[in-house]
Amino acid sequence: MVTQHLDALMEREFALERAGILLRDGELVAIPTETVYGLAACISNATALKNIFAVKGRPADNPLIVHIADRKDVYHLAHVDKLSELLMDAFWPGALTLVLPKKEVVNDLVTVGLETVAVRMPSLEITREIIQAAGEPLAAPSANISGRPSATTAHHVLDDFAGRIAAVVDAGPCELGIESTVVRVESGRVIVLRPGGVTRANLAAVVGDVLADAGAETSLAHGSPGTHHRHYAPRATVVLCETIEDLRQGAENGVQGLILILAPVEPELDIPWCPLSASTLFAELRRADDFDVDKILVHCTDAVRLDEALMNRLRKAAEPFRESGVDK
Ligand code: TXA
Ligand code: MG
After folding, report:
1. For ligand 1, is residue 226 a contact (CB within 6 Å)?
2. Which tens digits make up the pLDDT trace of 5-56?
3. Is 120 a pocket residue for ligand 1 (Cβ < 6 Å)?
4. Which residue(s) pair with 142 in the sheet?
5. pLDDT digits over 206-243, tens only?
6. 49, 103, 182: which to mutate for ligand 1, most atoms within 8 A of CB?
7. What is the pTM for the complete model shown?
8. CA of 318 to the centre of ligand 2 (A)
């Protein structure tokens, strides 16, 4: 299979039409969103849904997010409580995914048999136009091989999936570059299952003290199966460092091969440096792989440590493979 590169910046109408036809035919099409690229399939096509798991190498217990073009579609898919309505009013379209009690119509392949479904209405216009062209909501995980950094450009998507999916719609680099925040309302409280593009402060400004604190979230994060799996890992070893001295030591610690520092500000060390930010992290991790970097030292300054979504991705990128080996 030759993966078609559909250029939505140069040929928008053609790209939309092709993507719509392919999706309706049951093919997988990678789509741009404001967060990261998604690997999309029509939610009613069981074969296409199975293919998402096969092509990504996605663990079978990790459910997919359903992407809708129109807010009214959420009522077709799920039961919506008052607090979730409030969140939709404030953050849709945008980088907030709501986990809601599902309705019968949602295929078990999307939810991996759970009683809930995750729904998001993306803010990028072309994403919603692709969903409309497909004629139904699209299930889409991030468009990366499981365990690899997410894709924030069409080029990243092709690096992982060229020859294995029908097409990628290229709308340039993703604006946010980090995935959506996944939340669930439980007993009148909003629980963050995965930090992301919408911050805890953004949420608190709308829902105030019904936002569960971070401690509660950790124990409840089992509610989001994907948070258990190894994620975002480049081939290089990733080491999180707090101080310049830690960076210096990390560079000296028995390393052969290429070392790279990711830091928000260039440290005064004689080691190659690339800027660190939530919107460019995945691109930098992938670039490090392209250059066969062996070790990435990340300078977790105060500002970095305050960025919950960025720290979450960094910790996961730095996790060694666990002995049990189920995650990939
Ligand atoms: O920004 C995003 O969310 C991107 C773009 C493409 O929309 N998508 C994305 O999908 O990051 P994925 O599959 O990489 O991550 C989805 C997360 C996983 O942690 C998964 O476990 C969780 O959402 N999730 C999906 N359905 C769920 C459910 N019913 N209950 C709890 N967590 C769920
Ligand atoms: Mg993902």
Report:
1. yes
2. 999 999 999 999 999 999 999 999 999 999 999 999 999 999 999 999 999 9
3. yes
4. 38
5. 999 889 877 655 544 556 777 666 678 889 999 999 99
6. 182
7. 0.95
8. 16
